[in-house]
Structure formats: structure tokens, C-alpha cells
Amino acid sequence: MVKLQSQRITRSDVAREAGTSVAVVSYVINNGPRPVAEATRQRVLDAIKKTGYRPNEIARALACGTTKTYGLVVPNISNPFISSMAHALQREAFANGQVLLLGDAGDSRQRELELINNLLHRQVDGLLYTSVDRHPYIDLIQATGTPFVMLDRVDPAQHICAIRVDERAAAFQATQHLIGHGYRDIAIICGPLDMLNTQDRINGWRDALQLAGLAVRNEWIFPTTYTRPGGYQAAQKMLQGPLPQALFTTNELQAFGCLRAMAEHNMTAPKDLALICFNGTIESEYNVPSLTTVRQPVDAMAKTAIEMLKNWNGTPTVREFDFSLQVGESCGCSISKKNSP
Hints:
This protein is of the alpha/beta class.
């Protein structure tokens, strides 16, 4: 008799239906270690189909020393750059026979810690991790021996595995692009000042200005969160004082917030204020005006991160990737220049 589907079907149920032992059912499901006569094997397969039995893949994987899962912890999945990276990582993990479990910290350091502990308790095969404030819980992960790859810049003294782009060099190139248009008064909307990536992006902006012999005006450094509201509020503050000619925002969401604030002041980019941003996604291309932005090679980075987990041997490895400048209209580039090779 077939059990009701509201009850969990076990191998004992399958064995009873097939008229065999539980061991024989296990041999069929695991394709060994002992051979099973073809007629018996077929009876077991028919019984599995009839009862609706599904193997407990988690228990099965743990017995083999792997859960076939990776964990991904990110600051906030609503950030388009982070969601694009998560999508690429999920695709690569699936292509390698792994399931990716997402942990969204919602910009909360406490929640980030809880997510990491939860994923470690689930015995994931590896972690992919970007910290809320770039001060990650590395010691906690290392204490468990779990393979992990950081998805951004961390202190080199940590001696861990990481993928990254040179954000200082990227910020330098973005600012230099504005300088190339002839802009001399260039402000920056950046992230929180205690974050490592904020420091890199400010330093790149400063490097470009100093190389060009331009003044670095500290009053034109506007720290805020990496969000639309953050960009909006920082821009509102900027628009109350002496206006720069151009602006570098250190992420795409800040740029969107800035454009909203400009619109409320009847200003447009690049006519009234040229604009360039960091970590752009496809959203930048379809914005009006289209945003000139630094792009990271998300697909290549995701592929490498999954390979690093798959081939983990504990050796600290940092892989650095080239960035590119996607030219849009917000910086003052013409459509013809935008489409030129």
C-alpha cells in the first residue's frame, strides 16, 4: 500500500513495495557498492516511482563530505552591481553542480554575522563574501576551515583569497576622463570614510587632480551611503555651495540619487554638471542621460571566484581584473564619440 504523500516516504517504504531489503534499495539509488540483478533493480525503480520517494540529498551529500552548496553573503542585494554579481555567481555555481545560498545582510553588520554563522552551520562547501563595511569576519570563517573568497579589496595583511579590481586606478581613470573634457573643478560623492574601498576611490580621484595640477578641495568631498538616498542627500548638500563643473560618484546608485537632486534644481547632466560614476551596470546604459561609468568584468570575476572555491587548497591568492570605462552621455561625450571604436 502506498503511504499518503503528507508523510515522508523512506527507503523502508520503497523496500516494502518492491519486496526487497533496504540495503538493496540503497544499492540501486547509489549505483553500488554491490551489483543488483536487473529484474530486482527495475522493481526498486518502479517502487520509487509509485511511492514518490525522493532521496535525502543533504544526508547523502554529508556522507560524501560535501553539501554541494556555496554560501554568498552580500551587503544589500538591492544594489544593481551586487545583484548582477550574485546572478553571475549563481550561474557559475550551477554550472559546476553547486547550489548558491544567498545571504542578504541588508546593510546590517549584525545580520551579516548571523548569516555567516547560519551558512557555516549548514556546512556549505565554501563562502563568497562581501562585507557591509569592508571589515569582514575573517577569523570566524578561518576557524572553521571553510574555503572562502572575498569579492572585494581587503587588508593585504589578511593573506586570504580574493578577487578585485584596482579601485584606486579605476577612480583615477574616471576622474582623468573628466579632466580630459576640460573640467577643472571636480567634486566627489563617496562612501563612508572608514571603508577601504571609499579610501581607494578618494585617493584615485585625488591622484588624478594632483597629476593635472588641479586643486584638491576637501569641501568637495561628500561622504554618504552607497544608496540612491545617499547620493540624493549628498548632492543636495553640494548644490547649496559653490558648484563644481563635474562630479565623480563612487557608485551607480549615488549617481541616480544625484540626478534626482539636480532635476529638482532644474539642472541636467552634462549641461549644468558633468557626471561619471563607478560600478555601473546595464542600468547606466538605459538611464537618461546614459551614464559614463567604470565597469567591472562581472562574468569573468564570478567564473574565477567559483573556480577558486572548487580548487581550494588553502593558499592565499588574489586575482586582480582589468576594469573598463563605458562611455555615456553624462560626462559630455557626444553620441558620435560614444559609438566610435
